[in-house]
Write a structure and sequence with these properties.
This protein is of the alpha+beta class. The strands form 3 sheets. The protein has a 5-stranded mixed beta sheet with strand order 1-2-4-6-5. The protein has a 3-stranded antiparallel beta sheet with strand order 8-10-9, with helices on one face.
Amino acid sequence: MRAGWNPALRNRNVGTKAHGHGSDNKLVIPESWREAKRFYERLDSYVVVKRRVADHDMTFMIEPTRPGWFYPCTIEDVCCALSHLPPAHVANFSLIVMRQPTRKQRVLSPVWGRAVFVFDAPDYSGAAIVLESQNDEPLAWPISLSPERTRELDRLRADGHEVRKSRRRFEISTTPDSLRNTVLYRTLLHEVGHHVDYSRRSAEEWRGVTSTEREDFAHRYAAEMRERLQGLGVMPFARRIGDGALLEDGLRLEWFQAAQ
């Protein structure tokens, strides 16, 4: 090899992502090989509340919210909505987790809620629905959207969110009422739909179902249940606070309302 010649400089990938550039400072949600739990199962501190819903014992785990964050629906709201669903559907899970995401989790894994088929927590292991706290910061979506994301944008508009399009992105502005519509009247029912879908399949069948098929079923379930409950005059319903119950259960009102 001739002196002064560096063959690495001839590699077109040098200094690019393909050559590993930036891999050591990539923004990721911290995980530990010592910790088997997924990040949304790791609760720092929480209050446990018991309720009876549709002849079924339900446990709530509620994390305190950070300043500027709140849960768009209350425990009583969730209980009311679930109490009007078929009892056999509600019996597919026994835990509702209301968790406070970190800002990094909000950036990298933004969700309204999750259906978890095995949630591992102290004194509890089983099926759960996770609902995440929200804030009033606008959401930014790219201009280029898949067909499913386009349909979701239409759902957000229907929930009452204001969607504005700029040259580079969609900006979604929320309100406490629009967030309540999304989380209580759609996300909660959507996650129940995932549990219903999971319960009617074997483990082998479930592994063979594509994510698109799973999401389509949950969206249909949520839409059908919402239409049915609206027809019965159950939804929408006024916000249920239960101030006395909040204090008795060790909860704080500010966890469930937007900052003034």
